[in-house]
């Protein structure tokens, strides 16, 4: 588990009740650096989302690590996206393959957001990152 | 009198809790809840009555056939039409596809098909496909700036453009707005255009008297009128209905079959190929009985009271924008809060146990016109009450507080 993710999820873990949890998630979204408009191309749009979600994935060969950026037009999905970015950003493909996002979201009590039927594309985002990691191993 | 407490007790799902909160169900435009009588009829059919229809001389089969046809009669009475003018399908979407397919052979290149700009995708895409196949052209009826349909403007347009087919909704699923159909249907008649009305939303709320509306075809979904899912149908003026080409072929719909050619049953049978949704049709009888056991004026009055109360409460919240017509409405309210994404609001409302829908509601042209990604839609039915509105408004205020 990388330290960034631990740091960002601390407040979610201790949040009392679902409202506080959502508040923290939306706060994370708010703190996510704005994605440059140049990266918001159709290719970066994650399919199957009710909201717009852009996920940009690059592989830094010199560092052997994943470089991620993303944005969404909704607060909640953007917050969840921030969690995913914190989970995977800067990892090597080998490290990324070890991550089970499902377990992490379950631990945070956010598992319903990973089911495909939620239509917010969280699962699609995780799948996209894992596919990239798999290709680079 | 309209005993709302007794009515609510007839719908078991209304007692559910969601996310540890009592459920407030405001998504009846997507699908209505079912009274216990419908649920019981489904179980009774499979437990005691299951047999195929229109075949077999054995008792169960004959009973199933009689009950299946009985629902057709009940629904025909509900719409004040003849039972041979009702065709069962799996829903309003299939009904429109059946009609579009059935009309294909009478379209020539350059013929026009007129649609309104606020149709559900189900009343757009089949016509676009039909136009592509036949060389016909889809044209769009005029729409006012507030997304209302001005029947006079539409009638003039129809008179000028002379479309062969006019397909229009009786009530918008996204907005709930009720269409004033009479002038539009008259204009269709004057130029011999075939009128197709999408009644998916209106059929339960307005108990439409079809001879008065006088359209050629009217489609509906059973699950939006207290009935089971996977069932719907259409009304067709018999002379027209029997002349439509068949949609699907196979068993049940034939009269005689040889290895080289077949003859089909008369309408409506020729449109019901294969084993139909027998349990669904038979249980749907209970839904129709339930609706007709209620005095229509009292039911509408109740629905309107709850709707008007919701509109007033909503409008009082600073930053809420309502897109729906606030008078002539079946009970669907589309709204947004400031620039917040409807997805966020609907997700938070769900946390409070309030079931609403967010998104484009299968009406992307409306959203393009409004320049928004979607709306939150709260849709009401006869079993909702003012307590539902209070819980909804309370949850909405709390959700807004989380967003602000």
From TrEMBL, chain A:
Pfam families with a match to the protein in the record: SufE
Residue stretches making up the Fe-S metabolism associated domain: 11-131
Matches recorded under InterPro entries: Fe-S_metab-assoc_dom
PANTHER family (alphabetical): SUFE-LIKE PROTEIN 2, CHLOROPLASTIC, SULFUR ACCEPTOR PROTEIN CSDE
Family: Belongs to the SufE family.
The protein's name: Cysteine desulfurase, sulfur acceptor subunit CsdE
Source organism: Pseudoalteromonas gelatinilytica
């Amino acid at each position: 588990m990388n330290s960034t993710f631990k740091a960002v999820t601390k407040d979610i873990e201790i949040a009392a009740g679902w409202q506080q949890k959502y508040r923290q998630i939306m706060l994370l979204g708010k703190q996510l650096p704005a994605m440059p408009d140049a990266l918001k191309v159709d290719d970066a749009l994650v399919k199957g989302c009710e909201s717009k979600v852009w996920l940009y994935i690059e592989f830094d060969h010199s560092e052997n690590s994943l470089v991620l950026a993303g944005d969404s037009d909704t607060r909640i999905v953007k917050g969840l996206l921030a969690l995913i970015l914190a989970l995977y950003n800067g990892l090597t493909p080998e490290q990324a393959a070890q991550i089970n996002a499902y377990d992490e979201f379950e631990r945070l009590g956010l598992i319903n957001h990973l089911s495909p039927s939620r239509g917010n594309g969280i699962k699609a985002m995780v799948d996209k990152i894992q596919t990239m990691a798999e290709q680079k191993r | 009198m309209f005993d709302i407490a007794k009515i609510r007790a007839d719908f078991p799902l209304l007692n559910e809790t969601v996310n540890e909160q009592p459920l407030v169900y405001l998504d009846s435009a997507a699908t209505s809840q079912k009274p216990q009588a419908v649920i019981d009829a489904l179980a009774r059919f499979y437990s005691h009555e299951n047999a195929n229809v229109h075949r077999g001389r054995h008792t169960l089969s004959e009973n199933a056939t009689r009950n299946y046809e009985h629902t057709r009669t009940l629904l025909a009475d509900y719409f004040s039409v003849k039972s041979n003018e009702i065709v069962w399908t799996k829903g309003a979407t299939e009904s429109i596809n059946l009609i579009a397919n059935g009309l294909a052979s009478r379209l020539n290149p350059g013929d026009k098909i007129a649609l309104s700009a606020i149709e559900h995708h189900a009343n757009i895409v089949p016509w676009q496909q039909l136009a592509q196949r036949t060389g016909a052209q889809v044209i769009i009826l005029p729409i006012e700036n507030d997304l209302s349909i001005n029947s006079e403007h539409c009638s003039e347009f129809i008179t000028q453009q002379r479309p062969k087919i006019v397909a229009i909704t009786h009530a918008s699923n996204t907005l709930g707005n009720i269409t004033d159909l009479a002038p539009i249907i008259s204009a269709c008649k004057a130029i011999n255009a075939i009128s197709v009305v999408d009644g998916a939303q209106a059929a339960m709320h307005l108990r439409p008297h079809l001879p008065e509306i006088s359209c050629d075809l009217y489609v509906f979904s059973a699950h939006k009128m207290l009935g089971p899912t996977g069932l719907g149908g259409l009304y067709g003026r018999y002379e027209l209905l029997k002349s439509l080409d068949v949609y699907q072929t196979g068993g049940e719909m034939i009269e005689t079959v040889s290895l080289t050619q077949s003859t089909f049953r008369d309408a409506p049978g020729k449109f019901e190929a294969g084993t139909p949704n027998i349990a669904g049709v038979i249980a749907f009888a209970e839904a129709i009985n339930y609706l007709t056991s209620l005095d229509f004026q009292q039911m509408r009055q109740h629905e309107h009271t709850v709707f008007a109360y919701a509109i007033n409460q909503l409008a009082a919240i600073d930053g809420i924008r309502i897109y729906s017509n606030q008078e002539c409405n079946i009970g669907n309210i589309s709204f947004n809060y400031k620039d917040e994404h409807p997805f966020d609001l609907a997700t938070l409302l769900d946390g409070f146990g309030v079931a609403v829908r967010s998104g484009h509601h299968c009406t992307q042209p409306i959203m393009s016109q409004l320049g928004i990604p979607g709306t939150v839609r709260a849709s009401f039915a006869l079993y909702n009450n003012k307590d539902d509105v209070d819980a909804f408004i309370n949850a909405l205020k709390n959700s807004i507080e989380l967003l602000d």
